[in-house]
# Entry
Amino acid sequence: MKRKFLLSLVAVAFAFVGNAQTADEILAKYFENTGGLDKWKALEGIKISAKVNQGGMEIPLEIVQLKDGRQMTSITFQGKEVKQGVFDGTSLWSTNFMTMKAEKSDAEATENFKVDIGEFPDAFLNYKERGLKVELLGKETVEGSETFKIKLTKKPIKVDGKETDNVQFYYFDAENFVPLMMEAEINSGPAKGMISQNKMSDYQEVGGLMMPFSMAQGVKGQGSQPLTISNIELNPKVDAAAFAIPADN
# Structure
């Protein structure tokens, strides 16, 4: 009887090990299920057309991200184009909503932005070669879905001149292996110390790659701002002048 009990424990232990997932296995399954590593690596840029709901009003916007790090968000507001988070390869700048003039970000913000260059099109692509670390923290339920929680430790950033940890937490659906949410601590500004949340859903195929067509950004416990995507264009042709800070600034 005692021997049968021990054998049962061994069988359970082996079953547990056999079913256990590692962070590497989860990420490999993620890329496999969303189109394959080769297609992700071949991607040179994306252009996203979307609308954000703010106070019941839908505001159209366009997001462009390129493999070389250049990016911009163009918002159409009251008939005017307002650009935010524009990186031209050297400088980071945005349009001031009050003055409608372009303003360069300070040196620290620009250098922190450059830390993440190389993450396109996905933070986990070639993460080992880029010196990033991942850790599986276990399972958690996110809005009714069982997920794997993975900690991504990136290269440090600076906050007020001090080197600061740069960590994000991703929640991958345990069935389809796609990310449903990303969390990170806010390091500066009025919300410093709070947790930002980015939620992703409604995955659809675009040129053989699975991408979310519904997102929501906000602060944990304080609601979120929905972003509905109408179109995603792969490898768009973008005029380099679109990233340049206006000459009259």
Notes: Residues 2-19 form the longest helix (18 residues). The longest strand covers residues 145-159.
